[in-house]
From TrEMBL:
<comment type="subunit">
    <text>Homodimer, forms a heterotetramer with a Cas2 homodimer.</text>
</comment>
<dbReference type="Pfam" id="PF01867">
    <property type="entry name" value="Cas_Cas1"/>
</dbReference>
<keyword id="KW-0238">DNA-binding</keyword>
<comment type="function">
    <text>CRISPR (clustered regularly interspaced short palindromic repeat), is an adaptive immune system that provides protection against mobile genetic elements (viruses, transposable elements and conjugative plasmids). CRISPR clusters contain spacers, sequences complementary to antecedent mobile elements, and target invading nucleic acids. CRISPR clusters are transcribed and processed into CRISPR RNA (crRNA). Acts as a dsDNA endonuclease. Involved in the integration of spacer DNA into the CRISPR cassette.</text>
</comment>
<dbReference type="InterPro" id="IPR042211">
    <property type="entry name" value="CRISPR-assoc_Cas1_N"/>
</dbReference>
<feature type="binding site">
    <location>
        <position position="166"/>
    </location>
    <ligand>
        <name>Mn(2+)</name>
    </ligand>
</feature>
<keyword id="KW-0479">Metal-binding</keyword>
<dbReference type="InterPro" id="IPR019856">
    <property type="entry name" value="CRISPR-assoc_Cas1_DVULG"/>
</dbReference>
<keyword id="KW-0464">Manganese</keyword>
<dbReference type="InterPro" id="IPR002729">
    <property type="entry name" value="CRISPR-assoc_Cas1"/>
</dbReference>
<dbReference type="GO" id="GO:0004519">
    <property type="term" value="F:endonuclease activity"/>
</dbReference>
<keyword id="KW-0540">Nuclease</keyword>
<dbReference type="InterPro" id="IPR050646">
    <property type="entry name" value="Cas1"/>
</dbReference>
<feature type="binding site">
    <location>
        <position position="234"/>
    </location>
    <ligand>
        <name>Mn(2+)</name>
    </ligand>
</feature>
<protein>
    <recommendedName>
        <fullName>CRISPR-associated endonuclease Cas1</fullName>
        <ecNumber>3.1.-.-</ecNumber>
    </recommendedName>
</protein>
<keyword id="KW-0255">Endonuclease</keyword>
<keyword id="KW-0051">Antiviral defense</keyword>
Amino acid sequence: MKRLLNTLYVSQPNSYLTLDGDNVVLQREQEVVAKLPLHNLESIVTFGYAGASPALMGYCAERNISIVFLTMNGRFLARVIGESKGNVVLRKTQYLFSEDTQASARIARNFIVGKLYNQKWMMERTIRDHPLRISVEDFKATSKQFTQTMKSVRACEDLETLRGLEGHAAVSYYKLFDSMILQQKEDFYFKVRSRRPPLDNVNALLSLAYTLLANDMRSALEGVGLDAYVGFLHRDRPGRASLALDVMEELRGVYADRFVLSLINKKVVSAPDFVKKENGAVILKDEARKKFLQAWQLKKQDKITHPFLGESIAWGLVPHVQSLLLARYLRGDLDEYPPFLWK
């Protein structure tokens, strides 16, 4: 059980929530594990299927404390709220910002800054750890380029220009990606990003990691009351969770890409784990996909210190914290949305 920004996160499996006076009580196998006052909480997010008592849900609904139910894997199930109050205001503000391209650009540029900063950190880390196995000159040149690009992004208030800056940086980053693959080079190599379908082993892994990250981000956004389908950088498109794609940009490199590189370099996956379809698509076999998902869930449990909050949290809570920070910015509680800048 972890409290962050007036939100209570319950991540222990098979936990049941009940009400005791003005307190929420966490029970496991009918034994009290923890108790916390409700008067300062804005929401409760619980991972698992055990649920919450009707008394607790009624108490929270009356006091505008939302209860969000997610699976243990982080998939959004439901959100219990009372009369429409603050969430309506929050979503109306989100929609107004989304319709204003200049306001959208001011938010979107922070998503991109976070992405570039974290990818630059990956380059610097690779230079430090593997100077004899890469072209240090190429990595340092691209890192320097990213520093200049971030300055341009920070000053930009035009969405199309932002997309151009991000796209140019992405090309430079992916030119180095193959050099970060240090093992199994015959079977794992990266030439170009291929999506629908992925055409090689690395792209198959990246596509799955990005899909899981987008799902986690969508659940987190819905959990704080935001509309995951109305974005700022990614514009509206039927069926696309544009805001989830926006916020996950910060985590693509430092979370998803590093996860994929780790699976390859530590030989968790190997060539026999993949199959190539008649249309050229490369996918993971069923057993390998289970292995991938298990490793993803373990990664989400790793502890880090959040760079903005300065608190120890699990990696899996980062999408939820960033969603909370975005909601607070839209409400006017923060002067600027703070992107996730990994250190």
